[in-house]
Amino acid sequence: MPDSLLACGREVQLCGNSHYRMKGILKVETAAEFSARMAEKAANLAEEGEEVW
Question: Has this prediction a pTM greater than 0.85?
Answer without folding.
Answer: no
